[in-house]
Recover the amino acids of this structure.
């Protein structure tokens, strides 16, 4: 379709060609959380089946992008050996933009990653990507719930338009 500015979810879904419910959740999350500028890259990764990096097992369902808060927590646990409690504190600091805490965690992340054998350049790249997505990262359970409701409403609109468009359901 050429160069597209994704201003609506419909065109994003058409280009993305979701194959499963997790694809619907991921695209919904990107569209609703202010990450529209990353849609082209996201769709490119999905359609070209690119491999992502050492975090493949964590980021596979979102095609290499850390779009869920849980993914950020898992990355910090795997790469820097954060405890579950530390990764939750990191998540809160990132989503609430507590800059002092974020700087503190950056040093710990880099140091922990180096002890695990990761390259400093790679750790910097991972950290930078976390910083990009963290303010917009969505709790996956919320994303799934909202996507399911949207999916059901779309189904009703297509297959039961009379009931969807009237107050028929109030009479039941």
């Amino acid at each position: 379709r050429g160069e597209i500015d994704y201003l609506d979810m419909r065109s994003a879904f058409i280009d993305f060609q979701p194959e499963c419910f997790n694809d619907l959740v991921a695209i919904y999350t990107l569209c609703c959380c202010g990450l529209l500028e990353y849609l082209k890259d996201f769709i490119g990764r999905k359609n070209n089946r690119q491999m992502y990096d050492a975090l493949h097992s964590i980021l596979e369902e979102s095609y290499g992008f850390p779009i869920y808060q849980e993914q950020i927590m898992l990355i910090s646990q795997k790469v820097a050996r954060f405890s579950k409690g530390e990764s939750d504190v990191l998540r809160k600091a990132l989503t609430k933009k507590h800059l002092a805490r974020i700087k503190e965690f950056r040093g710990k992340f880099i140091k922990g990653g180096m002890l695990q054998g990761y390259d400093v350049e790679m750790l910097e790249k991972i950290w930078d990507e976390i910083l990009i997505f963290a303010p917009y990262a969505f709790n996956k359970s919320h994303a799934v719930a909202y996507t399911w409701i949207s999916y059901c409403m779309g189904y009703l609109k297509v297959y039961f338009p009379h009931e969807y468009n009237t107050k028929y359901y109030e009479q039941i």
Observations:
- The mean pLDDT is 85.
